[in-house]
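Sat 14:20. Reprocessing the chain from the morning session after the first attempt stalled halfway. Input below, unchanged.
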Amino acid sequence: MRAAVRSGWARTWDRLAASDPGLLRLTAGLRTVAAIVLTLAVLALLRVPVPQLVAGAMASMVATFALREKQRSQQAVTLALGLPVALASVSLGALLNQRVVVGDVFFVALIFCAVYGRRFGDRGTALGLIGFQIYFLSLFVHATTSTLPALYGVITVAFVCSAAARFVLLPQTPAGTLDRLRRAFRARLGQLIAAQIELLDAGPDEVEKVLAHLRTSTARLHETALMIQGRLEGGTSDEATARLLQRRIADAEIAAERLGLLLLTARSAERTDTLTLHLPGAPLPSGGELPMRDEATAVLRRDLEALRLLVLRPVGEASGTALAQVRNRLLGYREEENLPKASPAVQDVFRGLGEAARAVLGLRIALDGPQDESDDTPATARSREELDAEDAAIESGEEAEPEKPEPTGLGRPTTRAAVQVAVGSALAIAGGELLSSQRWYWAVLTCWIVFLNTASTGEILVKGYRRLVGTVLGVVAGIGLAGLVGHHTWTAFALVLVCIFAMFFTAPLSYTLMSFFVTAMLGLLYTLLSTYSVSVLVLRVEETALGAACGMIAAAVVLPVHTDRRTNDLLVDVLDKLADVTRAAMDQLSGAPPADLVDRARDLDQALADLHAATQPLTHPIAPQRGRRDTARYVVALLETCAYHARSLAATAELLPTHPSIAADPRLRGAGRRIVHNIEAIAAHVADPRSAAGIETGPSIASMLEPGTLRTPRYGRVTDRVLRHLQRLDEAVSGLARPLGIARERSEK
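Finished this time. C-alpha cells:
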C-alpha cells in the first residue's frame, strides 16, 4: 500500500515537474502570496486601516517580484537597496500628487530612468521597477504628506516580510533550482518517449494529432534543456561538473529527437524529412505504414516502454535485476546484438533505441552518481567505458570569446526604449487626464507594461492587444467578484491572493491570462477601498486601450525598431552561430584539435529561441499578411532542422578524442565547406539585400567522398550517420534560399 502511495506521489510530482520546469512558476506564485499574507498579518495586528493594508499588500508584491538575481546574496543586497528607493518614491508621490504639471513631468522622468536602468543588469531593472511601482502605489492610495509616516512603516513591514518569505519561508537556491530542472528534464524526456509510443500505435486517422503532440513534447524537452543551460554556472560546484551535465543533457536530447525521426521514417514508405518534426502542419510522407501487429513492432513497443522506465525510475529501483536486464538488452542494439528481423527502417529504430539507452545511462550517472555494475553485459560495460573516457576528457574551461562592442547613445536598446516609453507615457498622461483626472495613471501603467521585455513595434502591438483582451475579460470577472464579496474585507483579500497567485503562475504562459487576473484583482481592491463601481472598471478598459495605443504610437514613431529589422538582425545572428558550429564540427571530424562544441551548439539554440520569440508578431493569428506568416514559420522550422543536425554533428565530433573506433576523416572538411559557404552567403544577403553572394549547388555530400564510403562498417572512418546529418543540413540550408529570395548563382563541377 505504501509503495502504491509513493508511486502515485512520484507520478504526480513528475507531471508537476514537467508542466512547470524547476517549479519556477509555482515558487514565484507561492512566494508572492506568502509575502503578502505575512504583511497583512503583521499590519492587521497593528490595526492599520484598510487603505494601508492595500498599500502594504501592493508594496509586498512589488518587493517580491521585482528581484531577478539568481544568487541569494545578490537578492539580499538589491532588496536592501530597494527599501530607500521605495521610501523616496512614495515621498515624492505624496508631495507631487497635487502639483499636476510638476508631478507629471517628474513621473515621466522617473519612467525614463527606470527603463534606462535596465542597462545596469538585473539590479538596475529591479530598482527601476520598485521606483516606478511604488510611485504608482502612492497615486493609487492617494498618498498625502500627512499619511507618509504611516506609509513608511507599511512599506518597511512589506519589505521585511518579503525578505522573510524569500529567505526563510520559501528559500530557493541556484543548486536547488537546477536540481528541480534536472528532474523536469527527466520527466519531459519520459513524456517524449510516451508520445513516441503513441506514434507507433496511432492509426491512420490519429497520426496528425499524435504528430502534433510529438512536436510539442520535443519542443518542451528542448525548452527545459535551455533552462538548465542558463542555471549551470550558479547551480553547480565547479565548471567541470557544469560541462559534464551540459554534455549529458545534450546527448539525451539529441538521442531522443533522433529516435523520434527514426520512428517517423519507420511509419512511412520513404525517408521522412527532418522538417516534419519541426514545422507545424507538415504531414507525414505519403506511402505505406508500419504494420501495427507484427512481432518486431511488438518488441519495439515493449522496448520503448522499457526505455521510458529507465528514464523515470528512481535510482534505487533502476539497479534492480529486471531493469538491468532491460538496460543490457537496449544497449546491445548499439552493437547489432539481437536485432529483430524487420525492415531496415525498423532495425534503425532499434539501433536508435540503443543510442538513447546509452544517453540515458550517461544522464543517470551524471545526475545520480555511479550505478550498480554487477549485472553488466560486455556491451553495457563498453558503453560505461566510453562514458568514463568522455568524462575524463572534459576540460575545466576554454578561453572566453571576445565580447562584441555594444552600441552607444540612442543605438543602445535601453536608451532607445527609455526615450520611447517616456514619450508614450507623456501621451498617456495627457490622454488619461482627459478621460479621468483621478485615475489617469492606469493609461501610464499600461504604456509602461507593453514596453517591458519587448524590442520591436510588432511585439508591442501584440502585447498591447493581449493586455486589452485580458483587461476586458477581467472587468467582467471583477464585476462578478465584487458583487459576491460585498463588504467582507477578508474574503476580498483572500480572493485577491488567489488572483495574485494565478497571475504569477500564468504569466510565462499567457500574457492575456495574466492581464485577466490583474484586472479581476483590481476590482477587488477597489471594493476594499470603497471606490468600486461598474463605471470605474469600464474606465479601466478605456485607460488600458489608451495606454496601449500610446505605447504603439511611440514605438512606431520614436526611434522605431520595425519587426522586420529585428528579425533580420536575429536571423543573421542565428546563421552566424550555425556557421560557427558547423565549421568547428567539420574541422574536428576532419582531424583538427578538440574544441568546445556543446557550448557553441547551445549558443545557437539560444539565438534560435530569441528569433522564435521575435517572430511571434509575424506568426500571430491577428497578423494580416498570411503569406509572410507562413514564410516566417517555414524559415524558423528550417532553422530548427539545421540546428538539430548541427547539434548532432557537434555531439559526434566530441566523441573523436575518446572513441578509438571513430576516426577523423580529412575529406569531411571539403564536404562541409559548401555548407558553411552557403550559410555565410545567406547571412550576407539577409544583412544586405544588395549582396552578390549566391549559394553553391552541386552533387550530394555523400558523392563528394570516395566511392564505397556508405558501405563502411558502423563506426567506420566516416559513419553513415555523419553523412546523413551533413546531407540533411545541406538540403535544409539550400532550402532557406527560396523563401529568403537568394539566387543559386554557382554550381560545383
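The two ends are 72 Å apart (CA to CA).
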